[in-house]
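Deliverable D4.2, example record:
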Amino acid sequence: MAAVELDRVIEKEYEAATQKFTPFASAHEGYAVIKEQLEDATDKIEFLTNQLDVLMHIKEDRKAQQQDVY
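Output generated by the structure prediction step:
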């Protein structure tokens, strides 16, 4: 993507965000909101990673059980 195109995409996103959300009262508030969103996303990623690990262990256990039968 060319730099000019990227600039246009960023500008459009900025305009959409400013229409949808009120501006932050300060840089500190903006930082806090972004940090909270990042922490929420991190928690969700950790949860999904754990679920994936559980599913992988279930799959491995079933495969081992099938091999024991034969």
